[in-house]
Every structure is written in C-alpha cells, then in structure tokens.
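Aggregate trends can hide what the representation actually does to any particular protein. For completeness, the protein is quoted in full, as a sequence line and a line of structure tokens.
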Amino acid sequence: MNFKLIYASKDCIDVIKNLMQFYIYDFSEYMDYDVEEDGLYKAYPDLEEYWNEKKGMFPYVIKRGEKYVGFVLVKKNKSDQEYFSVAEFFIMKKYRRSGIGKAAAKQLFTLYKGDWQVHQRESNIPAQEFWRNVINEYTNGQFLERFEDGRRIQNFRT
C-alpha cells in the first residue's frame, strides 16, 4: 500500500472541491442531497476556511503514487473542551478496503496529539464500523463510544 497523506496547499482547493462532489454523492445515500440545476451538488460550505490555520482547520489530500484517492478535513474544536475531529473523510470507492483509509486515519491521530471526537451519522453503518475498528486498533480499545443527536461518537486521546 503506497500512499501519501499530504497537507493540502491552497493549490489543492479545486482538487478537494472536485473530490467533494463524489463524497457528497456517496453521502447522499444517508442524507437527502440532490444535485442543483447545473447537475452538481451544492458546494461544501466554507471550504476555503480550511486554509486558515488560525481557525484550527487542516486540509489533507491522499495520493497513491501520483493519483488522488481521497481527502480529509480536520478541525480543532474549541468549545468548553478542546479536541480534534474529522470533519470529512473520503476515500474513492476503487481504493476502499485497501488499507489506505485506515493508515491515513492513524497517521492523522499521530500528527495531532490530544483529545479526539470522531462521529458518524446513525444511518451510516459502514462509517461506524470503519471508525470503530480503526480507533479500537489505534487505541488498543481505550476509547468511549456514545450516541447523541443522531450520531455515533467515539472519544479518545492520542
């Protein structure tokens, strides 16, 4: 499995915007998303904010060789408790179950030390299984899981 998790420069914004269309398409199975009049899904809100590190937002692209295979958007949330979260995580179907997603997630957890919350929609069973397995393996079972506001949430510390 030859892949790279690369911090996305501003030059990658169009790549992520384009990959986001596939992500939203996949996600439309779990949410009521439809394409707009132009045949595209509505643009991801405030994507450009991910290139403002002062806001605690970190964009990544995932490549295998020279091919883009996905992206990750990470946030550092600063509410009553500071923690990192995976805002969006996408691996193209062709590359799923190859280990790239698991390895990329573990690499992120190692890059950003501290408290984490990872959440999935209640209806998105494949995402729940993926994250539960990755987090369980990464933390050796040292995580908490809860259900809140229609989401499954895993809490852990790196």
Summary: The two ends are 24 Å apart (CA to CA). The longest strand covers residues 67-78. Residues 68 and 156 are 29 Å apart (CA to CA).
